[in-house]
Amino acid sequence: MFNFTIFVSISHNAKMNTNKKIPDKGDPSDIIQVFPNYNIDIHCCRYWWLQKWEFKELSFPYWRIYHNSYKGAVILYNGKEFDLTPDKIIMIAPNTSYATRLYDHQIPEQGYSLKGGRVSSGLDKSTISIDPYILHLFIHFNIGMPYDNVSSGVFEYKITDHLKDKLQIIKQHLNYEHSKFSFYTSLSIQSLISDLLSELPEERWNIITKDTRILKVLNLIENKIDTDLSNPKLAVQAQMATNAFTRLFVDEINISPQKYVKKKRIDQACILLHHSSFSIDQVAAQTGFADRYHFSRIFKQITGLSPAKYRKDFGM
User: Fold this and answer.
1) How far is residue 191's CA from residue 197's CA, in Å, rounded to a whole number?
2) Is the dihedral of CA 98, 103, 109, 112 positive or negative?
3) How far is it, in rounded angstroms, from Cα 286 to Cα 278?
4) Cα–Cα distance for residue pair 129/115, rounded to 1 Å
5) 117, containing H or E segment
6) Span 187-203, average pLDDT
7) Which residues on adjacent β-strands are paired with residue 112?
8) What is the pTM of this model?
9) Per-residue pLDDT averaged across 214-234, rounded?
């Protein structure tokens, strides 16, 4: 077992795969087995050197994993400080608001301070050795509805030999190739993610609703974010009258269907702005907005930044 510390509140929902056939004759059991569906969607895996990493607030709609080869970086969350040291891994849940800094650097009140670049076998460390620096591995990923719909939290894991081996494989690959990953390295990344997620306590994954009608609607929203997701359309998916569906959704999820849809559209837009080269018009279209102007207005209303500013600040 890994040693880890959790600072988190608990909230969740679940989706089960019930599309199963009756077992064939000769199967030692005639009981149909049902397993939850999830998919590890890796957005990026990068290895950087950093000399500045001061952000007053970071919050993203995907999971993050951090490991630093040298000490010196700090994450500030919920009044606590988490040191990023070589003997631990930090994992951060989606939509967790936190700050970062290196050493005793001051965090700017406005904007941010970032200085770094990609680590490679050809990196001349003498060019960056004038000032202290750290080596920083970071992985961004989602696991889909409903398992990304969790409460904010920061998780701290002590590194075991098993985790150390996975990190070594990943970093060795990134020293030579940063855009194309081998099957073996990809397996190591997914194994690392699965190991960390599996060490969360079982109650972390408690479902927020057991109503299959609402679960079907949440799944539709997740997979058809660029389509018409009006209340009447969602009610059809739930096989309910619109007013009755709306009341049930609010009772189960604690916000209105359209507020939930808007949040999910902006979450997906943040992921695309951060990890893709799509134009802002393309991002608007892929997240279900009528046009760029409507998208930009809603995006700034929710995030406080225009899409262009968000991409400039956080795009990879």
Assistant:
1) 10
2) negative
3) 10
4) 13
5) strand 112-118
6) 93
7) 55
8) 0.81
9) 92
